[in-house]
Write a structure and sequence with these properties.
The structure is a homodimer of 765-residue chains. Chain A has three domains: 170-502, 7 Propeller (Methylamine Dehydrogenase, Chain H), CATH 2.130.10; 534-643, Sandwich (Immunoglobulin-like); 662-757. Chain A is α+β, with helices and mostly antiparallel strands and 765 residues long. In chain A, α13 (695-723) runs antiparallel to α14. The first copy, chain A, has 14 helices and 44 strands. The two termini of chain A are 55 Å apart. The longest helix of chain A is centred in the last third of the chain and has 31 residues, at 727-757. In chain A, the strands form eleven sheets. A six-stranded mixed sheet of chain A has the order 8-9-10-11-16-15. Chain A is globular. The interface between A and B is large, with 253 and 255 residues. Chains A, B: GO terms for molecular function: copper ion binding; cytochrome-c oxidase activity. Chains A, B: InterPro entries: CcO_II-like_C, Cupredoxin, N2O_reductase_N, N2OR_C, Nitrous_oxide_Rdtase_Sec-dep, Nos_propeller, NosZ/Cyto_c_oxidase_sub2, WD40/YVTN_repeat-like_dom_sf. Chains A, B: Keywords: Copper, Metal-binding, Periplasm, Signal. Chains A, B: It is found in: Periplasm. Chains A, B: Residues 548-656 form the Cytochrome oxidase subunit II copper A binding domain.
C-alpha cells in the first residue's frame, strides 16, 4: 500500500527512494507550507519546476526578440525566461559604450539618413542566419520599420557590426528574413512612397507611389551585407507586410503579403473615413510572389534600373520576365509562414476567423500553365485563390501568425481578438487545442519554428497587452511574453515574463548549444571592425603623442589602474583616448567615464576602445573606471587637466599628502609576507587537486598567475627603492605589490571554492 | 503508517488531503519526471516554489536598482525577480519617448552641463522618499557619479520629472540618500576638484582641491528639488564616499565615509605607483559627520559663501560652528549604514576583515565633552576610533555594505573577496551564518533595510561578476543579482537573476502595497510638468494652425487612427506635432514615429506629447503608431508631405484606388448587423453577472461603451451618406462602424473571459 502511494505520488516516491533523510522531510514540509503561504496550486509548482533554473544552470534555448521602439535586440533564455542582454543596435546605449566609443559611433553613423543621426529604431523582426535552412547561430539580422534599415549582429560577440540604409524605401515592415543559406536578407516596404524620395502629392498616389521588396546580399565570409550586390523589385503601392523565403521545392521564391490593396488614402481631418476603414474594405489583399533567384540573374544581366544609385527591377520588367505574381489572401493579414518542408505557406487575415494554407505545388502548376485569374492595375498576373489553396481552417477571431511544431503538420496560430493560441493540423485541416493568453497576442514563436527543423517543446506568446498581469508600474506597462509548454497534447501555460523595455514584435529562438560566443577578444581588438586596432597599447608601452594636432592617449586598463593616470592638454585641443583592456579573465570588463565631456566607454577583456572630443573647457575633469572590477575599483581613477588656452604646463612637483618611513615599509612588507603565506596555501590546495579538469578554474589560475607576476614586479620595484633608502616609494610599491596579492587571493579563493563545490579530487604529484 | 508518511511528506499529504483526483496524481508523476529531466533537487523545487509567481500574481516587494552606466533605473519584483521596467532617467530611451518628445527633452535639458548635452549617467544609489523614516513610496531619487546630478522620479507614474546639476562638484558618489522626512537629499563628492571649476595644477592639490557634501532641499508639495534652498558643506580633498542620514537620536546628522585620505596623486605614467597603491596605504580613512540641521540654520543666517552662485559653508565656518567632525574608519570603506533605531552606524573597510559598529551615544558624548584625539590638516576635530566604537566583528575578507534585518541587532554584510554574505549580530558582536554568492558581491539589499522598519524575508546580493552563471552572450556579461531567503536561521539561495543592461550598484526594495501608481492620466496631460498640456486636443477639435511661423498640429490618437492623417507643410517650416492619446483603457498606449525626422513618441492613455522639428527636406514621410494597439494597428498611419520651398499645396482630388457600390454597402451593413448580434450576446452575458464587483471588468466595460458610442457615430455617417445615395462613402463609414464593433467585441470578450475565470455569479435584474 505504501509502495502504491509511493509510486503514484511523484515527489513522495522520490523522497522514499532517497531514504527520507531529515533534510528531505524538511523540504517536503516546507513545500506544502510554501504552497499554502503563496497560494500555489500543484499545477503552479509543476510550472515552477519546468522553468526554474538553479544557479549556474543553462537554458535549453536562447531567444532573440526585437526590442520594438527601443531600437535594440533582447536576448533571453528559455525556459527560465530570464533576460540575458539588451544588444545595442539602432539606439545608443551607454552601458555597452554603444554610440559612445568612436568604433561603435562609426557603426551608428552608417545608419544616418542624408547625413542626419537617427537615434532610435523601430525594430520588428530578427532573423538568425541559416545554413541549408537550419539555424546556424552565426549572425542575427534585424530591421527598422520607421527608417528602413537592416542591422547585422555577429553572434560570436553579440555586437552590432553593420547598419545599411534602404536606398529607396521610406517605410518598411517585411524584414528581416533570410534565404536558406543566408545569401540574401529580405526587406519589404510598408507604406508606399515615391521610390525616388521626391515630393509627390497624394493625388498621384496610384501612379507615382510604390512599394518594393529589397534583397540584401549577405557576404558570409566578411560577415557584412554587400550593398553593391543588393537589389530591389518594384511593387505596386499596396502596403507590403511580412515576408518569408521559400525552401526545398519553393527555394528561390519569396513571399510577401500586404494590406490596403484598396490603395485608400485617409484624410479623417477632411471628414473622410480614416485609413483603418478604407484599408480594410475589400475581402482580400495580395500575397506577392517573387522569383528572387531569377531576379538576381536579371539584375546581373543589367535589366535593372538605377534609382538613387540602387538596382531596381521595375514591375514591367518583373512581369515581362515572369518573376512576379499575386495571389489573393484574406484581408489585412499578418504573418507569412512557409512550412519546414517548403510545400505550403500559411497566411491569416486579422479580421477573419480562418487560417489559409496555400499549396506550393498548386501554385507552381498554375504559373507553369499560365492559369491566371486576372491582372492587377499594374499588369501583374493574379492567381486564383481557391485554386491555390490547400485548405482553410477556422482557428478563431483575429488570427495572425503561425509557427511550426516539430511534429509534421502541427502548427500554432496566434489569435489576436480571442486572446488565444490555436493548435491545429494543417494537413488534415483540424483544430487540436486552444489556450487563453493574457492579452491580445501578436506574433508567437516556437523553438526554431522558422527553420526547416522546428524543435517543438516550447511556444512563446508575444502579447501586446499585459494590463493586470503584473505589479503596476505607472501608465506605461511592460509587455507580457507567456511561455507555453507544447510537449504534450494539451498546451500548458508555464510562465508570464514582463518585458521591461521596448515592445517586441517578433522573436526567434535557437538551441543554446548552437551558439558559440567568445568571452574575450584578442588583445588590442577593434570589435566593430573585427581587426586589430591601430590604437592598441601594450603594457609598459602606453604613451601620449600629438599627431596632426590631436593628442592621442594610448592607454591601458587593468585591475585597478588606468595608465596614464594624469593627462594634461591645452584648452581647444582635440583629445583621443584609446584604451586597451589588458585583462584575460572572463567578465573583467572595465569602463571609462570622463566628467563633462560625455565620454563613457565599455572595454571588455582585450578590447581597444576610443573616445575623441575637443577639450573646449579649461578645468579639472576626473575620469575613472565605471565597472566595480575589484576591491579597489574606486581607486581606478585619473585626472584630465585642461589648462587655459595659451598657458604652459605647470610641471610643479606634487605636494605629497602623506609620507612614509622605514617603519611603514617594514610593516607593509610583513603584511605582504603574511598574505603570501595565505596565497601559497590556496595555491597548494588547487595544485593538489585535478584542477586542470575544470575549464573555469584553468582560466582563473591563468588570471591569478598574471596577478602574481605583476606582484613580483611591484615587489622588485619596492625592494629597489628600499635598497636606495627611499622608503616612501618603497612603501607605496609594497602597497601595490599587496594589491596584486589581494587580486590573486580573490581569484584563488574563487577557484578553490569552485573545486570544492564541483567534486575535484586530490591528485598525486 | 500511511498517515505518518502523509504527514511528513508535504506534497503527498496535500494530495491525500485533496482526495487524489487523477489530475493530481498526474501532477505528482509529472513533478518527479520534470525533476529528473531537468536535474532539479528537492531544494531547487523548494526555491522554485518560493519564487515562481503564476500569471496575474503579484510580488510582495518591488525593488528599484540603479542601472549603473545605462543611466536608468531598473524596477523588479521580489521574489519573482522579474524586471518590470527600465525607467529613463539620464539617458534618452525611445520606447518611453524619453528624450524624444519635447516634454521629456526639457527634463533632460535640465541635466545639461554648461550648455552641453550629457547623454548618459553613471547611476549609483537610488533612494525612496521617507516619512518619519519609513518608505512612503512617493518619490525616488538617484545620483549620477560621472556628472554630479540628482534625478527625481515620481512614483505615481514612474517618470523622471527633474534633474539638478551639482553646481560645485565634478565627481560624486555618496548620493542619493534622504533625511527621515525627505527634507533633504544628500550628494557627497568623490574625486576632489577645485569647487570653482577652475584649472588648478595637481601640485596645488592639498590647498585648492576640495570635496563637499551637498544637501538638496526637496519640496514635497511640488515634488521637486528647490535648488535655491539647497547648500553644501566644504570638505577636505579626501575622496568622500557613501553617506547616510541619522535617525531617531542621530536625526539631524549625516555621515559620509571616504578613502584616499592620504591625498595621494597618482602618476603611473611617470613611474609613480598608481592611485590604488597610494590611496590604500594608511590603515584608516575618515567618517565625516555633519550636523545638517544646524548647517541649514547657518546658511539661513547668511554664514555661507557663494561658489558658482551656490551656498557653501566653508570648512573654517563648519569647524568654528561645531558642525563638522571626523572619525577614523578602517581604510577604503564602502557602505555607511545607520541602524533602524539610529543608535549605531556600521562601516567596513574593503581591505579589512572587520565590520566596525560605531555608537552614536559614545560619539555624541565625545563631541559634547570636546574629547578630540587630534585635528586633521584642515583643522577638523578627529574623534578617537576606539572611544567611538561599540564593537568590531570579523566578518570575512573584503567586507563592504551592511543592511538590516527585521530582527533587532541582526545584519547582513556583503563580503567582496570571499564572495559571501555574512549574517551577524551587531549588538552581541557575533557571526551567525555565512552563504556563498556568485561572484564578488558589491552592495546588498534587504527589504526596506535602509528604513526605520526593515521587513526581513529576502536579501538580494548585487554581484559584480556573473562569469559562468548564465548562458554565454559574448564578452560583456550580464550582472547577477541573487535572491536569498533570510526568513530562517540559515540563509538559503533562491534565485539567480541576470541583469541584461547596466551594472546596478545599489538597490532599494519597498513593500509593493506602499506603491499606488496610476494607470492613466487626465486627458490632455503634460506628465513631465504634472499639469494640463497647453497643446491638448479634444476629439473632433483637432486642428492645424500656424503660429509664429510654426505649424502646430493639435492631433489625437485612438484605436486605430491618428487625426490628422495627412499633414502638408513647406520645406524649411518648423512643424510641431502635439498628440493626445484619447484612450481611457489601461495599457492602451499609442506610439508615433515619423520617417527621417528622428521622431518617436510614446503616449500613454491621457498623455499629450509633442515633437518639434524643422521639415528641412522635401518629400513624403510616412508616420504611424508604433504600438500594436489593435487588430488594425498597421492601418494607424498617415503622411507628412513636405513640398519643395516656394511651391504651393497641390490640392488635387484624391484618385480613389477602389470605389464602392450599393451592393458593397448592403453587404457591409449585413456584416455589421451580424457582428452586433454577437456583441449583444456578450453584453447580455456581462450584464447578467456581478461584473461591477470586478474593477478590471468595470474598466473594460467603460472602454467597450466608448467604442460602441464611436460605432454609433460612424453608423450615423454611413447611413447619412447612403441616404444621399453616396454608397462609396456610405460603405467606408460602414466599415469604420465595423472597426469600432471589432474593438468593442475584443474588449467584451476579454471581460467575459475574466468573469468566467474569476468566479463571477449570475445576478437577478
Amino acid at each position: 500500500m505504501i509502495q502504491k502511494f509511493g509510486k503514484t505520488l511523484g515527489f513522495a516516491a522520490l523522497a522514499l527512494g532517497m531514504g527520507l533523510a531529515s533534510s528531505q522531510v524538511a523540504a517536503q514540509d516546507n513545500l506544502e507550507k510554501v504552497m499554502k503561504e503563496r497560494g500555489l496550486t500543484q499545477k503552479d509548482v509543476l510550472a515552477a519546476a519546468k522553468t526554474y533554473t538553479p544557479t549556474g544552470g543553462r537554458d535549453e534555448f536562447v531567444a532573440f526578440a526585437s526590442g520594438g521602439q527601443s531600437g535594440q535586440v533582447i536576448v533571453y533564455g528559455i525556459p527560465s525566461m530570464r533576460i540575458l542582454k539588451y544588444i545595442g543596435v539602432f539606439t545608443p546605449e551607454p552601458w555597452q559604450g554603444y554610440g559612445f566609443d568612436d568604433e561603435s559611433k562609426e557603426v551608428l553613423a552608417q545608419g544616418r539618413i542624408k547625413g542626419k543621426d537617427i537615434t532610435f529604431g523601430d525594430t520588428h523582426h530578427p532573423a538568425i542566419s541559416e545554413t541549408n535552412g537550419e539555424y546556424d547561430g552565426k549572425f542575427l539580422f534585424i530591421n527598422d520599420k520607421a527608417n528602413p534599415r537592416i542591422a547585422v549582429i555577429d553572434l560570436h560577440d553579440f555586437e552590432t557590426k553593420q547598419i545599411v540604409v534602404n536606398p529607396i524605401l521610406k517605410s518598411e515592415h517585411g524584414g528581416a528574413f533570410v534565404s536558406p543559406n543566408t545569401d540574401y536578407v529580405i526587406e519589404a516596404a510598408q507604406y508606399a512612397t515615391p521610390l525616388t524620395h521626391d515630393y509627390v502629392p497624394l493625388s498621384e498616389f496610384n501612379d507615382k507611389y510604390r512599394g518594393a521588396v529589397t534583397y540584401w546580399k549577405f557576404d558570409r565570409k566578411k560577415g557584412r551585407i554587400d550593398e553593391s550586390k543588393s537589389f530591389s523589385v518594384e511593387l505596386p503601392p499596396y502596403s507590403q507586410d511580412l515576408s518569408d523565403f521559400g525552401k526545398g521545392p519553393s527555394d528561390g521564391w519569396s513571399f510577401t503579403n500586404s494590406f490596403c490593396t484598396e490603395r485608400y488614402i485617409g484624410g479623417i481631418e477632411n471628414g473622410r473615413p480614416p485609413f483603418e476603414a478604407g484599408c480594410s474594405q475589400k475581402d482580400t489583399d495580395f500575397v506577392h510572389m517573387v522569383n528572387w533567384k531569377k531576379a538576381a540573374e536579371l539584375v546581373a544581366a543589367g535589366k535593372a534600373d538605377k534609382i538613387n544609385g540602387h538596382d531596381v527591377l521595375s514591375i514591367d520588367t518583373a512581369v515581362k520576365e515572369g518573376i512576379l505574381f499575386l495571389i489573393p489572401e484574406p484581408k489585412s493579414p499578418h504573418g507569412m509562414d512557409v512550412s519546414p518542408d517548403g510545400k505550403f505557406f500559411i497566411v491569416s487575415g486579422k479580421l477573419d476567423t480562418h487560417a489559409s494554407v496555400y499549396s506550393m505545388e498548386k501554385i507552381f502548376k498554375l504559373i507553369e500553365n499560365k492559369d491566371f485569374a486576372a491582372k492587377d492595375p499594374y499588369g501583374i498576373p493574379i492567381l486564383d485563390l481557391q485554386k491555390s489553396l490547400h485548405t482553410q481552417v477556422s482557428v478563431g477571431l483575429g488570427p495572425l501568425h503561425t509557427q511550426y511544431d516539430s511534429t509534421p503538420c502541427v502548427v500554432y496560430t496566434s489569435i489576436y481578438v480571442d486572446s488565444q493560441v490555436t493548435k491545429w493540423n494543417y494537413c488534415e485541416g483540424k483544430v487540436l487545442d486552444k489556450i487563453s493568453i493574457h492579452y491580445n497576442i501578436g506574433h508567437l514563436m516556437t523553438m526554431e519554428g522558422d527553420s526547416v527543423k522546428p524543435q517543438g517543446k516550447y511556444l512563446v506568446s508575444l502579447n501586446k497587452l499585459a494590463i493586470d498581469r503584473f505589479q503596476p508600474v505607472g501608465p506605461l506597462h511592460p509587455q507580457n511574453h507567456q511561455l507555453i509548454d507544447i510537449s504534450g497534447d494539451k498546451m500548458e501555460l508555464l510562465y508570464d515574463m514582463p518585458l521591461p523595455l521596448g515592445e517586441p514584435h517578433y522573436a526567434v529562438a535557437i538551441k543554446a548549444d548552437r551558439l558559440k560566443p567568445v568571452n574575450r577578444y584578442k588583445v588590442g581588438w577593434n570589435s566593430r571592425k573585427d581587426e586589430k586596432s591601430a590604437y592598441r597599447a601594450r603594457p609598459g608601452r602606453e604613451k601620449i603623442v600629438e599627431e596632426n594636432g590631436v593628442v592621442h592617449v594610448y592607454g591601458t586598463l587593468i585591475r585597478s589602474h588606468i595608465t596614464p593616470e594624469i593627462v594634461e592638454v591645452e584648452e581647444g585641443q582635440t583629445v583621443s583616448f584609446h584604451l586597451t583592456n589588458l585583462e584575460r579573465a572572463e567578465d573583467e570588463t572595465h569602463g571609462f567615464a570622463v566628467n563633462e565631456y560625455n565620454v563613457n566607454l565599455s572595454a571588455e577583456p582585450g578590447k581597444t576602445v576610443s573616445a575623441t572630443f575637443v577639450a573646449d573647457r579649461a578645468g579639472v575633469f576626473p575620469y575613472y573606471c565605471t565597472e566595480f572590477c575589484s576591491a579597489l575599483h574606486l581607486e581606478m581613477q585619473g585626472y584630465l587637466l585642461v589648462r587655459p588656452k595659451g598657458t604652459k604646463a605647470s610641471g610643479g612637483a606634487v605636494d605629497e599628502g602623506q609620507t612614509y618611513t622605514q617603519d611603514d615599509y617594514t610593516k607593509q612588507v610583513k603584511t605582504n609576507n603574511d598574505t603570501q603565506a595565505v596565497i601559497d596555501s590556496v595555491v597548494a590546495f588547487i595544485t593538489s587537486r585535478n584542477f586542470k579538469d575544470f575549464a573555469p578554474v584553468v582560466a582563473l589560475v591563468e588570471d591569478a598567475t598574471d596577478q602574481l607576476n605583476f606582484a613580483a614586479d611591484a615587489k622588485k620595484k619596492s625592494e629597489d627603492y628600499a635598497a636606495k633608502k627611499d622608503f616612501h616609494n618603497g612603501t607605496l610599491w609594497a602597497q601595490q605589490w599587496f594589491q596584486y596579492q589581494v587580486k590573486a587571493a580573490d581569484i584563488g579563493l574563487r577557484a578553490k571554492t569552485y573545486l570544492e563545490q564541483n567534486g575535484a579530487v586530490e591528485v598525486k604529484k
